[in-house]
Automatic annotation (TrEMBL):
Name of this chain's protein: Sugar phosphate isomerase/epimerase
Domain of life: Bacteria
Gene3D superfamilies attached to this UniProt entry: Divalent-metal-dependent TIM barrel enzymes (3.20.20.150)
Organism: Ancylobacter vacuolatus
Length: 285
């Protein structure tokens, strides 16, 4: 059961005022040269027509494909699923922009997207993300109770901010995170604290939060390994976004090198994957 680590095309953007972005082909080459297994396309960062222009890059570089969709209606998901098949994505991550206020009204929306996924033959994972139908951790837990087949893409940085979790993480939150991890079929790499969704990884004051997230990744990997066969691949996506996700100084310069941090995340993920293989599913602290 190998762990495959992907980079995000969005995460390779610099968004530096006055400086053009590197060509997409050059960024694909850099991700390939760095040893990543695949590249993820984010339809929140580019429209679907621009995303279609990346299709030849997957064949040229041999990178695996992955797609994150932001559908604003039920049927708007369908073109994203068609594109996902073109780039060989094993599933599509959904950050749904249909956002009813009540869980009872959310349920038919999720079920409708799942129906579209079945019709197109593309599995769906709903990301634990802000500003979407899974914005709130508590509502997402209720959705999982109502729709047992719902699967998640775990980016827990959003829920640390969503619930303003404090250290040490409470036993209730640990149990709730454990429930999310049991329903997660892929994982994303970013470290947050209760006020900031993306922390520089090397700052000493952030190390307690690095330890929290690595523990969650190990727990998630342990659960994933117990639920899947030996021929299945688990995906870990490095998702270190450009400014304004990345914290900047008074001159607008980022405080850390996200390309180097992505390599650090990959190393941690591979270590934690190996550690999970020998680790029983942990009880909440």
């Amino acid at each position: 059961m190998p762990l495959k680590v992907y980079q995000s095309l969005w995460a390779t953007e610099q968004r530096h005022p006055g400086t053009p972005e590197r060509p997409v082909a050059e960024r694909f080459d850099a991700v390939k040269a760095a040893g990543f297994d695949g590249m993820a396309i984010d339809l929140g960062a580019m429209d679907i027509e621009a995303a279609r222009e990346t299709v030849p890059e997957f064949a040229r570089t041999g990178l695996g494909g992955l797609l994150t969709a932001f559908p604003r209606s039920i049927e708007e998901l369908r073109p994203a699923l068609h594109l996902a098949k073109e780039i060989g994505a094993p599933f599509v991550i959904v950050i749904g922009q249909v956002m009813p206020l009540s869980v009872a009204d959310m349920v038919p929306v999720i079920e409708a997207w799942l129906r579209v996924g079945r019709e197109e033959g593309v599995p769906l994972q709903f990301e634990t993300h802000r500003n979407c139908i899974t914005n709130d951790m508590f509502a997402t837990l209720l959705l999982l109770d109502a729709i047992p087949e719902m699967r998640l893409a775990a980016d827990l940085s959003h829920y640390v901010v969503d619930r303003e979790m404090m250290l040490p993480i409470s036993a209730d939150y640990q149990a709730q995170v454990g429930r999310l991890l049991e329903c997660s079929d892929s994982f994303q790499g970013r470290v947050a604290n209760r006020c900031q969704v993306q922390l520089p990884l090397h700052f000493p004051q952030h190390q307690p939060w690095v330890a929290v997230f690595r523990d969650w990744w190990r727990r998630g990997f342990t659960s994933w390994q117990a639920r899947h066969g030996t021929d299945a691949d688990c995906l870990f996506l490095c998702e270190l976004g450009p400014r304004d996700y990345a914290i900047t100084d008074a001159q607008g310069e980022e405080l850390s090198d996200r390309a180097e941090e992505a390599l650090q995340l990959r190393q941690w993920a591979l270590e934690d994957w190996d550690a999970a293989a020998a680790r029983p599913v942990a009880e909440p602290n």
